[in-house]
Amino acid sequence: MLAQQLVNGVLLGATYALFALGFTLMFGVLRVINLVYGFYFTAGAFLALWLTEAGISLALALPLAAIGAGAIAVVVDGLLLTRLRRAKADELSSLMVTLGAVLALYAGMTAWLGPDIRRLPPGLVGAGALDLLGVRVTVAQVLILAASGVLVGGLLWLVRGTRLGLAIRAMAEKPDAAALMGIDTARLAALVSFVSGALAGAGGVLIGLNFNAIHPYMGEAMMLRGFVVVIVGGLGDIVGALLAGLLLGIVEVLTAGYLASGLKEAVGFAILVLVLWTRPAGLFGRAGVARA
Amino acid sequence: MPAWLEDLYWTYQNVVTALGVNGLLALSMYVVLAAGQLSLGQAAFMGLGAYSSALMTLWFGWPFWLVLPAACAAPVAFALAVGGPTLRLSGVYLAIATIGLGEVLRAVYLNVDALGGALGLSGIPEQASPLLIFSVLGVALAVLWLVGRSGAGRAMEALREDATAAQSMGIDVRRVRLVVLVASAVLAGLAGALSAHATDFIGPNDFGFEPAVTILSFALLGGIGSPFAPVLGAWVLTLLPELLRGFADLRLVLDGVVIVLAVLFLPRGLLSWRMPRRAA
Amino acid sequence: MTLLATRGLTRRYAGLVAVDGVDLAVPDGGVHAVIGPNGAGKTTLFNLLSGLVAPSAGGIRFGGADITLLPADRRARLGIARTFQNIRVFGAMTLLENVLTGLHPLLTSSVVGIVARLPRFRREEANAVVRARGALALVGLVDREGERAAALSYGDQRRLEIARAVAGSPRLLLLDEPAAGMNPAETAALGTLIRRIVASGTTVLLVEHDMRFVMDLSDSVTVLNFGRCIFAGPPALARADPAVIEAYLGAKVAARLAAG
């Protein structure tokens, strides 16, 4: 029973980590608190919904939805944040402007599509499940874990192992110096927006699949988890976000299982406050600039 | 009274109540912004004030003159709990922590049956007349005006302009930030208690993410040069959806767009006049 | 009598020691300068003294009391005031309001006193305004007291910052590169102003690059290089000290000069 809970927790945590990665990337690299991020999560889920309803397979719909969410992110972030980045505005300005924008976007989407919860078409993944050592893992969950792993691995490779990643890290540390070195900061910012949005979108599809629920405000519920993961892991710390995401997933599942389901979110917040009180730089204390 | 007149009075009273309550919420946002902090906990504090005051009336039957100040206890306690650790950190952490607080409390209200769950609490007796609400608003404005025109007001503005320089002048930055957060909690708690006892129903969705952001839009639209500015912003954003009837659904969209436009193009707000900071 | 003394004051950042075991002694009264080549650690030292940065090691005593762990606002209340290298006036506030913030520790009314406009509040505000005007008069800005600080020229903002710092009659005034960006006439006026400040009972510790200004004005100098103190004593001796020459001009030139 405990083992089952732990496995569920790890799977949930993997999706939280995935969600938080793009958010922490934007902060680490662009020094921006981008709350519209939750909307890209929703956008990815809805794109996948429409694609699969049109008959496209999940294997294709997932990457397409992620790319779509990334593209939307480039446009929206560009509109909102370019001015602020050029004026070297502080983080609170980006927080406020993205806060307003995300409210408008959620409300607009609700007005357009209605607040009802939608479900992905049935039968997208095999209904089977594996039984490993007494623990039951559905095919869907394996898929989610695999996809998360691929995406996280891909991100780490990008940031650590490529020249592009080097440019990103340079821009994160010293934007002015990076610009002087010939790095096109505007294009790089757009790229970071794209990667970030695509990660959010992919997360939306996977969570939508996991809980079989898609609705306009789903990104908002995730944002609280995102905050917890990002702060506990250290703002801008990729590996920290990963570990913190897994931790949160496990703690939430255990709380729901052994205490009360309604206390899930409260637990996350309690962890957040505790960490803020004791180790505000994050549990792993490496909060700095886009550490990978 | 003929039915249509009763309807008109009933509708009119709702808007008037909203103007008063939103004015108080705008002031609650004003005090933190004027000291350079971005706290988004006003809706959460309001919810604490609303729920605790409703319970005091419904369960304990306390008289309203006792309930109103007592309703500030829970918001202040939470402000101290959340504010304490986040004061040392950059403003971003306070903003995030307070958004999180609101969401978690909403989850609590939804899931605890004794608080009415998704249906909220109803049948709260009407104890808060528009006159009372506007009196409280008037007192709050007067207090903030008087404090603003003193060394305390200068300290707040100095802190907002340049916290490092302010500290070098002997201003206890942490203390000012904490006091300001507590003041914000008191104002929002009062707004919550008054609102709960003016409309006879409160529910979990009244105090979450959307109201928190709406309250921010009051201050961003109106400005923070004086206490009157954010109240003006609140009144504009309260009346506008009423006047443009068809836009009721898009009220939230409007609030969000207002914030975006204000941050990008109108950073000083509608009423950019800056109050003097010396005692007359 | 020593007003300010540090022992082994050190500040390390990852990979860099900005201030390295500095023993500084500032006597009560007069003007004392901290000089050194760029990057020698002068501004970090100031930040350590004023309390904006915590030391990695070592201690600071002010007027005989240990202030090492005190935050900046407590030190201000004890009588340590400062100006900043990149001027930090409160732009949206008027000149008078700026200087009034420098008198913050003198205002002791509670919120009740403030709201009810009790006699103590009125009295303290009135006294503060008088003192603030006095400080503005000292720097020659009193007839512009109602203007916004952001509208001032660079030189005037510097003078405003000084007025704000001296309004509360501090025991020690830390001036961080006060002559930066000034022409000779302005620099001379600054020298006169500093002497007036000293005459009114404030000890001045300043960081500066302008050598002639420092030599003319100071009673003693401390020379830093790479975060370490390499000389402490009268300005005339500093000029001839081989370690100082080497720090500023490099070993080759120093050797050549020594060889005659």
Note down, in words, how this protein is organized.
The complex is a heterotrimer of chains A (292), B (280) and C (260). Chain A has one domain. Chain A contains eleven helices and two strands, in the order ααααββααααααα. Chain A has helices spanning 2-30, 37-53, 58-86, 91-113, 139-161, 163-173, 175-180, 185-211, 218-233, 238-258, 264-278, and strands at residues 129-132, 135-138. Chain A is mostly helical. The model of chain A is unreliable at 287-292 (pLDDT under 50). Helix content of chain A is 74%, strand content 3%. In chain A, helix 1 runs antiparallel to helix 10 (238-258) and helix 2 (37-53) crosses helix 9 (218-233). By secondary structure, chain B is mainly α. Chain B has one domain. Chain B is built from twelve helices and two strands, in the order H-H-H-H-H-E-H-H-H-H-E-H-H-H. The longest helix of chain B is centred in the N-terminal third of the chain and has 32 residues, at 3-34. Chain C is α/β, with parallel strands linked by helices and 260 residues long. A six-stranded mixed β-sheet of chain C has the order 6-7-8-3-9-10, with helices on both faces. Chain C has a four-stranded antiparallel β-sheet with strand order 2-1-4-5, covered by helices on one side. In chain C, a hairpin with a 2-residue loop joins strand 4 and strand 5. Chain C is globular, with a radius of gyration of 20 Å. The termini of chain C are far apart. The relative contact order of chain C is 0.17. The model of chain C has no long low-confidence stretch (mean pLDDT 90). Chains in contact: A-B, B-C.
For the record, give the distance between the C-alpha atoms at the N and C termini of chain C, rounded to a whole number: 40 Å
Beta-strand content bin of chain C:
15-25%
Whole-number average pLDDT of chain C? 90
Spatial strand arrangement across the major sheet of chain C: 6-7-8-3-9-10
**What is the count of DSSP helices of chain B, taking H or I runs of 4+ residues?**
12
Q: How would the global form of chain C be characterised?
A: globular
Q: Enumerate the spans of chain C where pLDDT stays under 50 for 5 or more consecutive residues.
A: none
Most residues in contact: chain pair? A-B, 43 and 48 residues
How do the SSEs of chain C run, as a string of H and E? EEEHEEHEHHHHEHEHEEHHH
Give the total of beta strands of chain B.
2
Low-confidence spans of chain B: pLDDT under 50, at least 5 residues?
A: none
